[in-house]
Amino acid sequence: MRNQDRFIGARTLFLSGERAEESPGRAKYAEFEPDDAHLSGGKIERHIDRWRAVHKWSERDVWDIMARHSIFPHPCYRLGWSRCSCSACIFNNADAFASYRLIFPEMFDVLSGYEEQFGRTIKRNMSLPVLADKGTPFKMDPEDIRLAKSTTWERSMILDPWELPRGAFAEGSGPT
Hints:
It contains seven helices and three strands; from the N terminus they run βαββαααααα. The chain is an alpha+beta fold. The protein has a domain at about 1-55. A three-stranded mixed β-sheet has the order 1-3-2, with no helix packed on it. The two termini are about 20 Å apart. The mean pLDDT is about 95.
């Protein structure tokens, strides 16, 4: 939003999905506040507010409303990830990195190469290949892999019959 002229002089509401339950740090976030990209009182005016609409919700609340309205969960949850953020998140466990290596082998190799190049690992005590070797890839449906890798969405947002995805209530505090 900072580098796009379309937000200059406009009023924008940015909705994000951080929940207080996810971490002590997120528990301190305000539910509604000016976004970091907000600018006022200078040459450029950009009014951007951030609303964390589900900040007070539990993970159960999120899955319940999705089930009630038959909302198709993001493919990452269907694949087994417990959070919808970076697929190579530094907080991922061994199973998630084993799954990442299976789905995105080229990117896994790039990250592993960076570890070697910089002499630093994402995890303090082991390299990504060692970590992934300790894990077991999630049981993943090829269609969910295709959807997760796609840059467009071609299917209905309704999932009927609705089913709780594999990543629900797994390590990582669930959907955001």
